[in-house]
């Protein structure tokens, strides 16, 4: 129990004929602490109603609270925003940006592209093959 509740209980038990002492002397406080307590008490804003009552309190709906805290999907708005501006960067600029963001380690470097060798055409013609066949195998 708090001291305030004890004091209120004792005030109720006091005999009715006994007069109340002045508020400063009633609690037996004196000195610099009493002034600080009085200042603190003045600073506390008191509303005109009892906070223990339910009157005037707004009941919050659990469904409304759930809807407020429910995550919102912004995919559609984001896609519209991204598709709205159709500015395509130059390929050289894109390569430069990618090169700047790439690390210096060898694992971060892209593999070097090796140019594929084109198959070279033969210097022999079909006639040369037939002639070779006739000479080598003896087929007329």
UniProtKB/TrEMBL annotation:
Residues 1-55, 98-124 are annotated as: Disordered. It comes from the Eukaryota. One of its GO terms (cellular component) is nucleolus. Residues 1-37 have a biased composition (Low complexity). One of its GO terms (molecular function) is enzyme binding. Keywords: Nucleus. Transmembrane segments: none annotated. Its main location: nucleus. Residues 106-120 have a biased composition (Basic and acidic residues). The keyword Ribonucleoprotein does not apply. It is found in: Nucleus, Nucleolus. InterPro entries: AROS. Belongs to the AROS family. This is Active regulator of SIRT1. The gene is Rps19bp1.
């Amino acid at each position: 129990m708090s001291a305030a509740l004890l004091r209120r209980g004792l005030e109720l038990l006091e005999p009715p004929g006994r007069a109340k002492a002045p508020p400063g002397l009633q609690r037996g406080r004196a000195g610099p602490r009493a002034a600080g307590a009085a200042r603190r008490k003045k600073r506390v804003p008191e509303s005109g109603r009892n906070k223990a009552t339910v009157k005037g309190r707004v009941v919050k709906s659990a469904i409304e609270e759930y809807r407020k805290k429910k995550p919102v999907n912004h995919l559609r708005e984001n896609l519209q925003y991204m598709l709205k501006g159709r500015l395509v960067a130059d390929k050289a600029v894109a390569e430069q940006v990618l090169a700047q963001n790439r690390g210096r380690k060898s694992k971060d470097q892209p593999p070097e592209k090796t140019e594929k060798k084109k198959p070279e055409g033969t210097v022999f013609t079909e006639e040369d093959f037939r002639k070779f066949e006739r000479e080598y195998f003896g087929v007329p």
